[in-house]
UniProtKB/TrEMBL annotation:
The gene is queE. Signal peptide: none annotated. It catalyses: 6-carboxy-5,6,7,8-tetrahydropterin + H(+) = 7-carboxy-7-carbaguanine + NH4(+). Catalyzes the complex heterocyclic radical-mediated conversion of 6-carboxy-5,6,7,8-tetrahydropterin (CPH4) to 7-carboxy-7-deazaguanine (CDG), a step common to the biosynthetic pathways of all 7-deazapurine-containing compounds. [4Fe-4S] cluster binds at residues 31, 35, 38. Its cofactor is Mg(2+); [4Fe-4S] cluster; S-adenosyl-L-methionine. This is 7-carboxy-7-deazaguanine synthase. GO terms for biological process: tRNA queuosine(34) biosynthetic process. Substrate binds at residues 12-14, 27, 85. Mg(2+) binds at residue 40. Binds 1 [4Fe-4S] cluster. The cluster is coordinated with 3 cysteines and an exchangeable S-adenosyl-L-methionine. Binds 1 S-adenosyl-L-methionine per subunit. It is an enzyme of class 4 (lyase). It comes from the Bacteria. Its EC number is 4.3.99.3.
Length: 241
């Protein structure tokens, strides 16, 4: 069993219900999707890491860790709250990782919601869902991707019995009506509670994260939460913060 890790760094949680919490971001390498507006395309390839200015050689940056090596590396940092992001982190056995790290650690997972870990990852236990918060960000036509209905139904069902499952949808200002129509349809079909839904403005520039009264109004209208991107507001598109 190995874990492909793109980067690890301390930061304030940049998105979602825990925005601003001191955390350790663990970015897993490789994703099963190819969203048109993906802000981490450097996790997609085994060949090189061309967008990393700190690594201009273009050589591979990700590191393959064994479970023991990854646990040892994470314990070198003082932060005990992990953001397990990607790429797509559920391609790895997060349950085993959290069980091995032990009770002093908490985690939240940033997943695209296209996978069902206990069915697709050997030794991921049903009880492992309780070890983490799940921030599910379904990708649909606005990302050039298709939903995986069976997986989305799984997360929606889990949300009914698990307090820490949230659905975060990325919205594009220029396509607000179309995006909202699709999101409302997804929420109705899967009976997702409005208080579990967050709307996040798409964009990797500071400008994209301000003047978002349009999104404030949509959240109020539907009873959704507003999820600004704190790390973009603070640093723009700088990587590793
Ligand atoms: S799911 Fe996330 S990491 Fe994967 S392609 Fe889409 S935006 Fe990028």
């Amino acid at each position: 069993m190995s874990f492909l890790i793109n980067e690890i760094y301390p930061c304030l949680q940049g998105e979602g219900v825990n925005t601003g919490s001191p955390s350790l971001l663990v970015r897993f390498h490789i994703c099963n999707l190819r969203c048109t507006w993906c802000d981490t395309p450097y996790t997609h390839t085994f060949k090189s890491d061309p967008v990393d200015k700190k690594n201009p050689s273009g050589k591979q940056k990700f590191v393959r860790f064994s479970l023991a090596e990854l646990v040892k590396r994470l314990k070198e940092f003082p932060q005990k709250h992990l953001i397990l992001s990607g790429g797509e982190p559920t391609l790895h056995n997060l349950g085993l990782l959290m069980r091995t790290l032990g009770d002093e650690y908490s985690a939240e997972v940033e997943s695209n919601g296209t996978r069902i870990p206990h069915k697709q990852i050997p030794n991921f236990l049903v009880t492992d869902y309780n070890l983490m918060q799940w921030n599910i960000s379904p990708k649909f036509s606005n990302a050039g991707e298709n939903l995986v209905p069976e997986a989305l139904a799984h997360w929606a069902e889990l949300a009914k019995n698990h307090a820490h499952v949230y659905f975060k949808f990325v919205i594009r200002k220029d396509y607000l009506n179309a995006d909202m129509q699709e999101i409302i349809s997804i929420i109705n079909q899967h009976k997702i509670s409005a208080n579990k839904v967050l709307l996040m403005p798409e964009g990797t520039t500071i400008q994209s994260q301000i003047e978002n009264i349009w999104l404030h109004d949509e959240c109020l209208k539907h009873g959704f939460r507003y999820a600004p991107r704190l790390h973009v507001l603070l640093f723009g598109n700088l990587r590793g913060v």
